[in-house]
Design brief:
Elements lengths: L12 E8 L4 E6 L4 E5 L15 E9 L2 E11 L4 H8 L4 H23 L6 H19 L1
Antiparallel strand pairs: 1-2, 1-4, 2-3, 4-5
Length: 141
């Protein structure tokens, strides 16, 4: 093939603006601001759902109904909002050590009662439960 006849094809880039997994379609928006329809059948092989904000590279076809995404490649998946929120509430390691030590102390205090068949009540039970929930939330982050 004649090198002069070869033309570099630049695929547009953009992000998924909206995608409804139940209905099987959504829309993408190019970096220039134009929109195109995205059908579930045009997602990359093995992908059945795609999050809004996902950066993509794609090809489009202009049809009677407007621009449609024909092929696409995922460039970057956005970090989830939940993950960002969990990371922002993560304790410093020094504070986590203090929490664990406080929990150990609280458990040591209720152990004799439990050994004799008595579960903690009132403020003691609330303190241990609160410490356990806080530690579980921190470990789950």
């Amino acid at each position: 093939m004649n090198p002069a006849a070869m033309k570099e094809v630049v695929m547009p880039t953009g992000h998924v603006k909206f995608f409804d997994n139940v209905k099987g379609f959504g829309f993408v928006q190019s970096d220039e601001g134009t929109e195109a329809f995205l059908h579930v059948s045009n997602l990359p092989e093995g992908v059945t759902d795609i999050k809004p904000g996902t950066r993509i590279e794609y090809s489009i076809l202009d049809s009677k109904r407007g621009a449609q995404v024909m092929t696409m490649r995922i460039l970057e998946v956005p970090e989830s909002l939940e993950k960002k929120q969990r990371a922002s509430t993560r304790m410093k390691n020094e504070d986590l050590v203090i929490l664990v030590e406080g929990l150990i102390s609280a458990l040591d205090n209720i152990r004799p009662g439990i050994e004799h068949g008595r579960l903690p009540e009132g403020a003691s039970a609330e303190k241990v439960a609160r410490l356990l929930r806080t530690l579980a939330d921190q470990l789950h982050n």
